[in-house]
Protein: Sec-independent protein translocase protein TatC
Amino acid sequence: MPLADHLRELRNRLAKGLLAIVVVAVVAAFFYKDIINFITQPVLDTVGCGQSFGELAKSKNAHCAHLTVSGLLAPFTLALKVALMSGVVLAAPVWLYQLWAFVAPGLHRHEKKYAYAFVGFGFPLFLGGGYLAYNVLPMTAKVLIDLTPSGAENLLPLDELLDLVTRMIVVFGLAFEMPLLLVMLNLTGVLSGRRMLGWWRGMIVGIAAFAAVATPSPDPGTMLALAAPIWALFFIAVAFSLINDRRRARREGEGPADDEASELDLTPEDIGEIESVSATRALPEQTGTDRVNGYDDVT
Structure:
């Protein structure tokens, strides 16, 4: 297609993805209190002050946090933030499909099914990463709250807590998409499994560094909770890519598919041989290869 048609197609795909996010966000806005309670309840169960601070000071563990909301517009801002976050997460199947549907027309027939596979595996992986972050958050909050000095009371703003929860869920979810992206690059022939396997040392160090930066807690347990699943998914992606490379090599040996162009023989021929062959050819109405009215067949 011309460039203008590609840009028009991209605009339509983005519009459909944004429309799905807006629709889900509008519906989630009516239930934003329930969503906030669902997100913050595990953290509050771990570090929340269920009783007075004076009674907690008498116990062995006096570290807890009071949830606060500051400002007149803070509840409205929280509602918008929670609704938008819910729209992005819950509408992920739609905008993921629109993303790959834009790429699919440029793929071969046997590669177009990868768009559906990307959505089919991408959304569960994103949810798996978000669920892992949801379960790691209480441990992270416990480690951070324990750093509070003795005698000090920790006030935890609700908007900051939601930002932390949202950031960790999105980071964990997108991190779980990395192996799927490598598989898609391998399926489209951009990246080979052997090259991916050669990166394993750098990937282990890089994933560990990414996990250390992405998690707010300084303890190694939270970092390993993010790094270990990504390590496992990376090696699964490498194994799949190696098997797919072997299958592709076997298929190429059998010849091109119906929608693929065969390789052309571009070896130059001797001009003399071409002239000798054309000289022996004549039109049906000609009885010989002599010139007719002074012109040959080509003229």
Strands lie at 65-68, 154-157. The radius of gyration is 31 Å. Residues 51-61 have pLDDT under 50 and may be disordered. The longest strand covers residues 65-68.
